[in-house]
């Protein structure tokens, strides 16, 4: 997508020409200057609004910002949580539409999450599928509601996460019934692990069209009040 370019503030001067005689018109006053504020600029990439995985890579003192992994299925949605460098399956939701989006926001609020990592279906050759459009639609609606709270929404290639989750649960010794009921949540765990292990490589931010909401996201840098850079020494006392 071509990024929009805006010009900086300019001063516009109004002058009359000395060699023009306009007796019927009032003479304009000497130079007047009007300053116009810079318009809000469209955010275009994760470079401007980096995900938590990138923040950890670029700032070793940065702490805070929990991530919610979301595996959107046809009938179920798996949820996983990342706090620090730990990952765990949370739950599997069966609600759809607005009820699902509301539930995701409630979970994010409860778990102090500031970003959603949503799995984006792709085929083995990397192309998006028909299901990808449905996921993007949900992500777009969620992004608007999340931005109102200063939270961010990203999509990330989820190819292979379900099969990897199934293999992991077999190794863990879970029975068939448990695997079927938990697979979506464990797929969300795999998604989060992939996201952090690659420092957010391939994550695509989903932005609301409102520039005011985009600005709110950019100005809502996550901070964990219980883990500030200036107090790191407190966490090494045992």
From TrEMBL:
User: What Gene Ontology terms for biological process does this UniProt record contain?
Assistant: rRNA 5'-end processing
Q: Which InterPro entries match?
A: RNaseH-like_sf (IPR012337), YqgF (IPR005227), YqgF/RNaseH-like_dom (IPR006641), YqgF/RNaseH-like_dom_sf (IPR037027)
Q: Which SUPFAM superfamilies match?
A: Ribonuclease H-like
Gene Ontology MF annotations? hydrolase activity; nuclease activity
Enumerate the spans annotated as YqgF/RNase H-like domain. 65-165
Keywords recorded for this protein, A-Z:
Cytoplasm, Hydrolase, Nuclease, Ribosome biogenesis
Q: What is this protein called?
A: YqgF/RNase H-like domain-containing protein
- Specify the species: Brassica carinata
């Amino acid at each position: 997508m071509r990024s929009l370019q805006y010009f900086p503030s300019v001063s516009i001067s109004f002058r009359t020409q000395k060699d023009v005689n306009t007796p019927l018109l009032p003479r304009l006053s000497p130079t007047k200057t009007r300053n116009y504020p810079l318009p809000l600029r469209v955010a275009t990439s994760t470079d401007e609004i980096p995900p938590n995985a990138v923040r950890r890579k670029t700032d070793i003192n940065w702490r805070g910002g929990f991530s919610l992994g979301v595996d959107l299925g046809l009938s179920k949605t798996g949820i996983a949580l990342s706090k620090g460098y730990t990952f765990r399956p949370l739950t599997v939701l069966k609600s759809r539409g607005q009820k699902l989006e509301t539930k995701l926001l409630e979970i994010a609020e409860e778990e102090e999450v500031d970003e959603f990592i949503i799995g984006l279906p792709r085929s083995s050759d990397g192309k998006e599928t028909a299901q990808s459009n449905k996921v993007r639609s949900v992500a777009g609606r969620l992004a608007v509601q999340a931005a109102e709270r200063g939270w961010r929404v990203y999509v990330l290639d989820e190819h292979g996460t379900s099969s990897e989750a199934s293999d992991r649960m077999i190794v863990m010794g879970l029975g068939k019934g448990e695997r079927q009921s938990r697979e979506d949540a464990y797929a969300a765990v795999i998604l989060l692990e992939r996201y952090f292990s690659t420092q957010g490589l391939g994550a695509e931010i989903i932005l609301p069209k409102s520039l005011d909401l985009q600005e709110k996201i950019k100005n809502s840098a996550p901070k964990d009040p219980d883990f500030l850079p200036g107090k790191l020494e407190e966490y090494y006392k045992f």
